[in-house]
Amino acid sequence: MSYLRTFAPWIVFAVIPSQYWQWAALAAFGVSVLGIAQQIRAGQHIEALIIDIGSVAFFAALTVLAFADPDSALHPYTPALSSGVLALVAGASLAVRVPFTLPIAKQTTPQELWDHPAFIRTSYVITSVWTASFVIGCIALTALAHSSSGLRTTAQVLAFVLPVIFTIRYVAHIQAKANAFNESAS
After folding, report:
1. Whole-model pTM?
2. DSSP structural state of residue 48
3. Relative orientation angle of helices 78-95 and 117-143, to the nearest 10 degrees
4. Which helix (H) or strand (E) holds 33?
């Protein structure tokens, strides 16, 4: 559920039809601001909000652009731009050594495991896959900017669904390995 909350603004932006991009950007901006406010009230640290902060910045700028120039030549490229921004934010989280998935994983993992090398490594692997998916999505969406909306939608969905599937399967794999190790050690 944490990933859904984290990516809620991007999902809102993606599901609102392209001809209403001004309102999609504004709605996504609003969801971003509300998400950060909720997380701060819940006591979340700023390092856990890297995607959320990137979302606010991107959708604030996009909202201004969309209302200031509704016929902007950038409009067909907004799906690619959104994947590109997510790739930059996710990549930056790796560069500053706080993979964006780490704070999300901590929300459902016992605190005694937070410093375990396998837990940290798992977050790096998962964040790397998300980053790669966003980069590939950005490239695909750039190439598809002037093609049918069905192809663009498929590319956008795949850029999110594939890393979600990977995350679920990889975490299950790591947990199974840990359980097998613990059983053999007992």
Report:
1. 0.88
2. G
3. 160
4. helix 21-41
